[in-house]
Amino acid sequence: MNIGKLFGRHTDPVTHEVRTDGRDRLPPGQYQTRKWPVLTYERMPNFDATKYRFRVWGEVAHPFELTWEELTALPRVQLTSDFHCVTTWSRYDNAWEGVHIREILRRAELLPTARYVMAHSWTSYTTNMSLAALDDDDVLIALKHDGQDLAPEHGGPVRLIVPKLYAYKSAKWLNGLEFMEKDRPGFWEIRGYNNNADPWQEERYW
Length: 206
Fold this sequence. Notes:
Blueprint: H1 3-6, E1 31-32, E2 53-58, E3 64-67, H2 68-72, E4 77-84, E5 89-100, H3 101-108, E6 116-121, E7 126-130, H4 131-134, E8 140-145, E9 148-149, E10 159-161, E11 174-180, H5 187-190
Parallel strand pairs: 1-5, 2-11
Antiparallel strand pairs: 2-3, 4-5, 5-8, 6-7, 6-11, 8-9, 8-10
């Protein structure tokens, strides 16, 4: 059955592809699309570069705060990854540009007690994950997508991207990372979304 056709969604022909770790490229229960649907509970916020601050705090040796100019002046990387939404769509080969997460971790110098992370947005949205999920090769603070500045409706001008987890873990409108000894749920996790959010395990809800 073509799920996209059934629900009026545009889908592309799906070919069976396997990732380097042996998992299917398309997680179970997902359909592939070239579109990038806009999904958010919150009203799209305004952005004021003069007031923006990116904070890092908690279980770190060196908590710090960056202005917008300081954040965007950090060394940048370009990464390409797939993106999987808990609502069942997947978009392949997204080209991201931004600050690699390990640039932030290096500056913060995590304490041995840091085991979890809470990502914060200036809208008050939060989402939690393990440090192991954050500290990975494909995680970055995105400023561009497919060669363009990240659009506001997609979390621009700055968004966390954690490609191996469902997209609600990739916090839009990011303005801080809190490193924690003990885990605690974020906005959607409190409301029934899965704490781990692994697409290949279909960890959508509690």
